[in-house]
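Hey,

The postdoc asked me to send both predictions to you directly instead of through the lab channel. I've kept everything plain text so nothing gets mangled by the mail client. Protein one:
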Amino acid sequence: MTNRIISINPATQEAVGTVRVTKQDKFNKILERSILSQQKWQELSVAKRAGILRQVRKQLVKKSDELISIISEETGKPFWDSFLETMTVAEHLKYMCGQAPYILSKEKRSPGIFIHKRTYLRYFPHGTAGIISPWNYPLILAASPVVEALLSGNTVVLKPSELTPLTGNKIRQIFVQGGVPEDVFQVVHGRADTGAALVESPMTDVICFTGSVKTGRVIAESCGRQLKPSILELGGNDPMIVMEDADTDRAVSAAVWGGF
C-alpha cells in the first residue's frame, strides 16, 4: 500500500493534492505530544479557551474562500454547499464559545441527608480525544467535535477521511493560526488501519467517530473492551417516500440533494 494519499475531485477525476500517510513512529510521537500538552491546556480557564476559539472563528471567516475552495475540490460539491458548511461551523463556534462557560461550570447539588456536607458537580476533560471524520461534510463533522473537545480541555488528534485529507490539514492550520497550540490539535493521515490505531491506542482517552454502522460496531466493541468512552454518529440509507400527488421535479431535486 502506497505511503501517499492522492486527493481526487470526484466531479472531475482530477488530482487535487497529496498527503503522506502518517508512519507508526510519527503517529506515536504525535500522541505523546498530545498527552504532554494536555495538562497545560486543561489548566486554562474555560473562558480563556473560549477566547482562543473566538479567534479561531475570526480566522475561519478570514480564510473562508480558501476553505470553501478546498472542500469543493475534494468532495466535488458546488461552492454554495461548501459555503453553507463553512458558515455553519462559524455559527457553531460562536454558540459553543458563548455556552461553554455555563455548561462546564461547577454546579451545586443537594447533599441529601448529609446536610453537614456540601456537594458539587464538576466537569473534567478525558485527556486526548481521537476524532475520525468522514468525507461528505469534511469540515462540519470534523470541526464541530474538535471545538467541543478543545473547549472541554481535551487535546485532539484528528484523522480526516482519506478522501478529504487536505480539508483536514486546512482545519488544523486555521485553528493553529487562531491561537490553539500546535500540539493541542494535531492531524494524522491514513486509511482504515490508521483509524483503527487511533481507536486501539492506549494514548487516546475518548473516541468520536462519524461513519458507517459496520465500522461503528467495531469501534464500539474495541472501546467497550478498553472501557474507553466513544461518541458514534452512524449513517445508513433511508427510504424516500414520494406521494402520487407530489411535485415530481421538486421530489427529484430533493432526492439528489439528500443523497449526496
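Protein two:
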Amino acid sequence: MMRLTTTIIPEYFQNQNDAIDAGTLSAEKINLVALGINNGWIDATIQYGAYVDFAYNNSYRQLINESEYVSLKEEFETGCLPRLQACPGETGTDAACQDADDFCYENVEAYVMDDRS
C-alpha cells in the first residue's frame, strides 16, 4: 500500500525540476508555491480521533469542554474505532463499512461540527 502525503507531492515536483535542471528530463519546470487537495482520501482511524483532539486543543479556540472531550474520546475508542477496524481495505464488507461510517459520523464528527462553521 502506498501512502501519499502532502510532503510527497511537492517533493515529486522538486525532483522533476532538479532533473530538468540537470538536463536528464526534457520538460517545463513547475514552480510549486501552494498545494491544495480537494476531497483527498484520509485514514479514518486517525481522522476521527483527530477531530476530537483538535476540537478540544487547537491554536484558535476550544470548541468542546473537557467533559465533552472525555465523552467523545470514549465514543471514538469504544464505538467508532472498532467499527472502522472491522472495515479494513478490501476485506471489510459494505455493511460493516457503512455501519462504521454512520456510527462515526453520528457519534463523533457531527457532534464536533454541530453548529459551527
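Summary for protein two, as requested: Residues 44-113 form one domain.

Thanks,
C.
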